[in-house]
Design goal:
The protein has helices at about 1-25, 35-60, 65-70. By secondary structure, it is an all-alpha fold. The chain has one domain (about 1-60).
Length: about 70
């Protein structure tokens, strides 16, 4: 459980870092302060949750075979 949480936090931080670097590359004159960094982390968290929901909907687990059908 802790491993899943750690990977999720790492994924959110990597997404936020990627968005911040893309923003800085697009707008080099604008400094990324704490408010803008917080916005990137929030947007990355929302994006991670949306990706998780889409993944859960599209990749449903296969049903286990019944004992009757396995015979």
């Amino acid at each position: 459980m802790i491993k899943d949480f750690s990977l999720s936090v790492a994924a959110v931080l990597l997404l936020a870092l990627g968005m911040a670097l893309a923003f800085h590359w697009t707008y080099p004159d604008i400094d990324i302060g704490s408010n803008l960094a917080g916005l990137f982390v929030f947007a990355a968290l929302v994006l991670r949750l949306a990706i998780g929901k889409v993944w859960a909907v599209t990749h449903k687990p296969r049903p286990l075979p019944n004992a009757e059908t396995a015979k």
